[in-house]
Amino acid sequence: MDQAHIHLLITHLPIFGSILGALVLVHGMWTKSSATKIAAYHVLILSALGAVVAYLTGEGTEETVENIQGVAENAIEAHEEFAMFALISLICTGIASVLGVILTLKKSSFANKISMVILFLALVGFGLVARTGYLGGKIRHTEVGTGTPQPSNPSSDHD
Q1: Which residue in 92, 122, 128, 146 has the most C-beta neighbors within 10 A?
Q2: Handedness of CA 33, 35, 41, 47 (dihedral sign)
Q3: CATH match for 3-64+71-140 among 1.25.10, 1.20.120, 1.20.1070, 1.10.3470
Q4: pTM of structure
């Protein structure tokens, strides 16, 4: 298994993990369940770790795909540049989530406030990592973002 394979496998974790963590956190806040909030924080921490792995395997993946016919260098660069914003955002979310676990376990008065901050960070992180994934998909998936209509089914053209 090379870096490109690892990159493609792991890139979905930060995308789905950040939104799943945010949704679980909302549920934990609504039900006032410390255990649910801690579970959400763990999902967000794993998402941040996944973002780090995805970012670190990105360079090796670039080396693998940059010489493939039809791969545009500008698409790779756009994905790579935006990935840094998503990485920073999810690292901040992960660090805040570690703090959230500690404050929740200690039953700190700041636990509810930090959960709001973490929810905000998770939602921003989701937006950034989803955009990064979209830009990454444009590298090899020609059906992403082309705006061209799909050909109609010839059998349906006949009455």
Answers
A1: 122
A2: negative
A3: 1.20.120
A4: 0.82
